[in-house]
Design brief:
Distance between the termini: 34 Å
Helix content: 55-70%
Strand order of the largest sheet: 2-3-8-5-7-6
Shape: elongated
Number of domains: 2
Radius of gyration: 32 Å
Number of helices: 17
Length: 413
Amino acid sequence: MILTPFEWTIAKRYMLPGRGEAFIALVAGISLAAVALGVAALVIVMSVMNGFRAELLDKIVGLNGHAIIQAYGGRLDNWQGILRDVRATPGVVHASPLIEQPLLVSLNGRVEAILARGNTPDDIARLKPNLKIGNLGELQPGRNNVAIGSQLAQNLGAQVGDTITIINPQGRATPFGTVPREIGYRVAAIFEVGVYDYDERFVVMPMQDAQTLLLSGDAIGMIEIKTTDPDTVTETLAPITRKLAGQAVVTDWKTINASLFEALAVERVAMFVVLSLIVLVAVFNILSSLIMMVRAKTRDIAILRTMGATRASLMKIFVTAGFLIGALGTLIGLGLGFAFLYFRQPIVRLIEILTGQELWDPKIRFLTELPSRSDPVEIFMISAMALVLSFLFTLYPAFKAASTDPVQVLRYE
């Protein structure tokens, strides 16, 4: 739809308020602001939810892998052969043995439930980006050194160099019953993954030390696997799943965290639909402002018709006037949305200071900071939706303007 210089001139005049048209200008301004706020809200919420899902997936998968192989009964005795088969599977980029067992830890009379993890040196080294204090290089077999999560360290009041006692309730049998196994470990490092549950529970040690603590001999608890694409992990590991049928179970991240990610997906769709109503209300305002403009400009429209303006010209003039409100509101909304996302952490802290409430409690929301990840496809869809709705809602008033009969309007002039 290309406008002639005449049509563009008239459209610009109609977009600017004239005498006695302050109310129409006010409604148009409200329409522009509503479109901007609706687009900004959609951009902010969808980016935050995408970031939440992506960060949660990265941190969960970064520590737990894309899938695990666990034997029935929790002990893999012939794990070396299984590990070779897994590493030879196309699409598998990393596989390593892992021991994971819920236990208890105590320090200075304080007792906490933990998840003791026995890792290989390579897996321990992967914690380096998350290291807060200490030295992961001291986690060597036989030295009884461990790394603990930052929140666990806070709960226990533990610092690097302190000795914590890990308690294994399934200790050795004696004539007086089973005696829990208690071993002291020196805290060599404190890490922070960014997922509250992990930082509160995990105690990482060399795999050999975990086997000694659990009296498991050479057996391990599971094999951790990472693939080239986490979304196709089920298909990638299908051959291993069939081969281990009856011996062990293969569980991927989708199954382990199914309820969490399904809840996120449902909430994401629901928020998009609800916030889209804001944009819909905004374009209704554009519709009402154009209808009022057409009624106010009826005499001008009739004069334009008598001067030779065609119905198509009038349609284009009023469609342009309404569409530009929606387009300008969309651009302002995108700018507001990206500005909010860029300064999201200072804004959250400011709101917390003003309200006295903690808005982002990691105990509830898993992550320690408000995440954000904008999807270009979603941004395009949000912008396209706002622009298409703005265009569609200008058609009716533009058609009414084009249908004006100059004879009826100017009969008594």
